[in-house]
Amino acid sequence: MRMGEAVLAYGGGRLDRAGALRTDPTRIGALLADPATTVLPLWRDRCLVDSDGPVRLTGDRASLVRAAAGETVFLGLDGEAAVFAVDLSALPERSAVEMAGAARAVDVRTLVGRLDTDDAAVQAYARGLLHWHRQQRYCGTCGAPAVAGGGGHVRTCTGGECGRLLFPRIEPAIIVLVEAPGPPGRCLLARHAGASEDAWSTLAGFVEVGESLEDAVRREMTEEAGVTVTDVTYQGSQAWPFPAGLMLGFRATALSEEVRVDGEELLAARWFTRAELRERVASGRTLGRVDAIDHHLLHGWLAEG
Questions:
Q1: Structural domain total, the chain
Q2: What is the pTM of this model?
C-alpha cells in the first residue's frame, strides 16, 4: 500500500514559502517591521516553548529577539502575515529562554503528539534552515566568509575571485521495508548497533554520489544485511531536518531468505510475520519512531494482511 499523499510529521504545513519575496530586500525589510509579523525563536536547534507549545512572537518582543539574533530567516507567509525564524544560539540558554518569554528549550521531536502537523512542519523547517547557517559560515571552495542573503535561503562567498553561491544542502536517505520472497508474509527488521536488545527497525542508508535511489536501496540491503532485492517500489517521502535529511521510503522483495548482517551497523536481522508485529503492538511496543516514515511503512504493511 503506497502512502500516496499522506502527510507525515514535519512535512506539509500551511505556510506559503513565497520564494519570489526572498530576492526583494525592500519587501523583506517591510515585513520585518510589520507588527503583525510572527517570529519563531530557536536556540541551538531547539524550539523555545511555554505551557502552550512553541512561542510565536510579535510586536516589541519580536523586535527584541531579532536584535539579539545571529541569523534571521524568512520562512514564508501564513495568510497575510509573514513568519520569520531567528537563531539565539550565541546567547546562554537561560538568557535566550527569558528573552523570548519562554519556559525552556526543547527538541521539536519531543513534542510529537502535542503539536499539530502545521506547527511541527514550520518548527522543523526553521530548525533545518538555521542549522545550515551555523554550519556554512565559510566558503568550502576558497575559505572566505560567506554572508546570508535571499531572505536567509542563500549564502554568498565574499572572496573577491570566488563569489560562490551556497544553498542549503539536503542529505537524501532511503528507508526500506523488505518483504520475504514467499509465504507466509514476512518483513525484514534489524537491530542496529547501539540499540537496545529488543529494538528492531527497518533498514536504511544514505544515497551516494552517482547512484539512483533504487541503486541505493539495492546496495544498502546487500551491504548491511546480505540481501539481494528486486521489485524496488517508491512509497513516499518525509522531511527530516535533523539536521538535513530527506527520507525516501521504499518497498522491495528479497530474492532469498538468507540474511547476513555486516556486524558493524547491524548486529542482527530476521524475518517477522504480521502476527509477531501485531503482538509487539499489543504489548505496547512501537513499530519504528511514531514520527518517522518507517512507522508508516510498517503499519501500511500490517494493514494488508
A1: 3
A2: 0.92
Burial degree of 280 (CB within 10 A; 0-12, 13-18, 19+) = middle
User: CB 286: neighbour CB atoms within 10 A?
Assistant: 11
- Please report, for residues 135, 144, 164, 168, the alpha-carbon distance to residue 156 in angstroms, rounded to integers and kept in the order given: 14, 10, 6, 12
Does 7 map to a domain?
A: no
Report the run of H or E that residue 185 belongs to, with start and end: none
The alpha carbons of the chain give a radius of gyration, in whole angstroms, of 22
How many distinct helices (H) and strands (E) make up the chain?
7, 15
Reading the block at residue 265, the C-alpha cell is 551497523
- Within 8 A by CB and 6+ apart from 20, the residues are none
Q: Which residues contact 160 (CB under 8 A, 6 or more apart)?
A: none
254: β partners: 229
**Cα distance between residue 25 and residue 12, in whole Å:** 27
Q: Which amino acid is at 155?
A: R
Question: In this structure, are 194 and 89 located in the same domain?
Answer: no
Query: What pLDDT does 216 receive?
Result: 98
Query: Any idea what the Cα angle at residue 267 is, between residues 266 and 269, rounded to 5°?
Result: 80
Range of the domain at 151: 136-168
- Tell me how far apart the alpha carbons of residues 208 and 242 are, in angstroms, rounded to a whole number: 19
* 122: its cell numbers: 514550520
Three-state secondary structure call for residue 174: strand
Mean pLDDT of all residues in 264-293: 93
CATH number of domain containing 242: 3.90.79.10
Closest CA to 296 of 171, 213, 174, 177: 177
Q: Kindly report, residue by residue over 72-104, the tens digit of the pLDDT.
A: 999 999 999 999 999 999 999 999 999 999 999
